[in-house]
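#onboarding

Welcome to the new folks! Below is a worked example of what a typical request in this channel looks like: someone posts a single protein sequence, and someone else replies with the predicted structure as tokens. Don't worry about understanding the tokens yet, we'll cover that in week two.

Example request:
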Amino acid sequence: MNKTVILVTGASGYLGGRLCHQLFNAGHHVKAFVRHTSNLSSLPPPTDGGSGGGTLELVFGDVTDYQSLRQACSGCHVIFHAAAVVELWFPDPSRLFSVNVGGLKNVLQAYKETGTIEKIVYTSSFFALGSTDGYVADETQTHTGKFFCKEYEKSKAVADKVALDAASEGIPIVPVYPGLIYGPGKVTDANIVARMIIERFSGRLPGYFGQANERFSFSHVDDVVEGHIAAMEKGKPGERYLLTGENASFKQVCDIAAMITQTRRPSFGIPLLIIEAYGWISVLFSKLTGNLPLISPTIVSAVRHQWAYSCEKAKAELDYNPRSLKEG
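Example response:
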């Protein structure tokens, strides 16, 4: 797809910014859909393509504002819909649903009206599939909808059904499901792995966070970006692809970080009840200061479950090749 015109929603985010860089370097014309208040430091500078490479165009709007989104989609061939509210704790859950569900519905409506869009790559989340207590899940799993650890999980599960319904109607959408994303770049409020490591090495997290038996699927951000691009080039419309990585506990993350830095491993685990109490205190201070808490009760609720997934389908069909947690 040389010189494909590609719209990236959520372009100023942790994943979206790195996705824009890769698409730009591959020679595409990238339309970065951002809000006027967005921090654009993670994006390539806007260019007219005079250097012979890709081009980047800033397009301002909001996925909840249909007219701005519809205008941004004009002339596009591919949409990477990566815009989402990813919260540790969010005071207004309605915002989660207006962005995570309503934003996707607006993208689908824009597809119907433009007539030029050939594929939509939709960034879902492992949370949309539900927990995997005692087993490793694949793309056949759908959320039971009976229990949600957090409102974000619920919003992504609802949006997942919207995406699958659209695929059944013939819309060329490819949902991808990253694991817990980590890696280099700016530290965002939702980048819990980077934040945990910072707390660990600054001395504010003296013990292990979580339990030794919980399992999350950790995905390096650059692997997830490559998986998105592979989904554009090779992904089959209507098929789901898990862009996950190594299944491990937060204890293993801390142990690997200690080994790499040749520092002492934490000597004890912090009971989840204590972390949960700290989370409630953090939420209280958050309400007073306006700053998001490092830990919230919803995070503790998620850590009480396992979230382990297999990416064998993405390996086979997209040539997805995630690195090990130690390498990452």
